């Protein structure tokens, strides 16, 4: 059963995202955590979701320390019923979502012919289907309110093929295609759809091998890119941001 906390009631003022409401999927750790914390520091009310309740509680404590209005919910964003509850409770606690960051993702690597149907479904549902489900759920309110930001966290693997990346690359190439079409469908409503594609990031994410932290991106680098997207001028939007480590691994 999905669960959501009561919000912290203190409001931020005098910040660029004051009075905006953000939802970050996969917000319990890594990139999602960094994005949620940075949005809160910028003044947004923040809703986070994920599958690990203990980790969600930890991030909620950090949001509370910042003074942000927030809520959290344990949810599986590959399931339409969980997504429906997530959006309903976020709206009840904070208001209509004006910034959506589709960040939930997993990685399973190896030759496609060695992978099972279950593994295919798991990767494609988490990395691609969830973007469709959560975006679909928040778009009506964005249209009604005259605008919003949808930021989809993809990967440079969504543009570059590599051995053993069949499932992961397929999911991230799908995010690229879906995002581009959504951007064209929604721009007339004042809704900006952007894709951020990081290279290797130093997180707990299951990647192709051990990462050298000194030569990898940090989660805060991706959070900074999200900040650039949501704080740009109202008459433009950044459709794509690619982020690479300064030093090659």
Count of DSSP H/I helices: 6
For the record, the CATH class is Alpha Beta
Structural category is: alpha/beta
Task: Identify the CATH architecture.
Answer: 3-Layer(aba) Sandwich
Distance between the termini: 42 Å
Do you know the CATH topology? Rossmann fold
Largest sheet: 7 strands, parallel
How do the strands of the widest beta sheet line up side by side? 3-2-1-4-5-6-7
The CATH superfamily label reads NAD(P)-binding Rossmann-like Domain
Counting DSSP E segments of at least 2 residues, the number of strands comes to 7
Whole-angstrom Rg: 17 Å
Structure notes:
By secondary structure, this protein is α/β, with parallel strands linked by helices. Helix content is 41%, strand content 15%. Residues 1-12 have low confidence and may be disordered. The chain has six helices and seven strands, in the order βαβαβαβαβαβαβ. It has a single domain (21-243), classed as NAD(P)-binding Rossmann-like Domain (Rossmann fold), CATH 3.40.50.720. Strands 3-2-1-4-5-6-7 form a seven-stranded parallel sheet, sandwiched between helices. The protein starts with 20 loop residues before the first strand and ends in a 6-residue tail after the last strand.
